[in-house]
Amino acid sequence: xxxxxxxxxxxxxxxxxxxxxxxxxxxxxxxxxxxxxxxxxxxxxxxxxxxxxxxxxxxxxxxxxxxxxxxxxxxxxxxxxxxxxxxxxxxxxxxxxxxxxxxxxxxxxxxxxxxxxxxxxxxxxxxxxxxxxxxxxxxxxxxxxxxxxxxxxxxxxxxxxxxxxxxxxxxxx
Length: 173
What we know:
4 helices, 8 strands, about 45% strand
């Protein structure tokens, strides 16, 4: 499956505020996932194997490292929950770059996905992903959606992240 997202990632000083807003808006709560993202060395973009009780996928994506809403081109392949053989193959072929472990609360309002994350070694974060799954919404619409929630959540520009959790962990070590 291929699709485009406009997304932001930001430090989150008040996860309860965001959770309360999502509940007030009757966002669909998917659940809380204990995720392990294993990133592999690749010549361009990012390749990760996500493993958790809710989401399991091999994900390749390209995204600019900049603050604020940004385009992410995503290729996603659903894998079985027990994907250890795939992990072993990818590790032997490419080597592991970094492993990110997080506790992620997942919500949806229409096509917009929200994550409230607690990332091991990094802290609390929020992500907003406006998803155009079939190309029918267009980049302008999903950019507007992402910006709308950025304002609703009152996320200051100084809290916006330019890089992925994987980059932050690599830079911290």
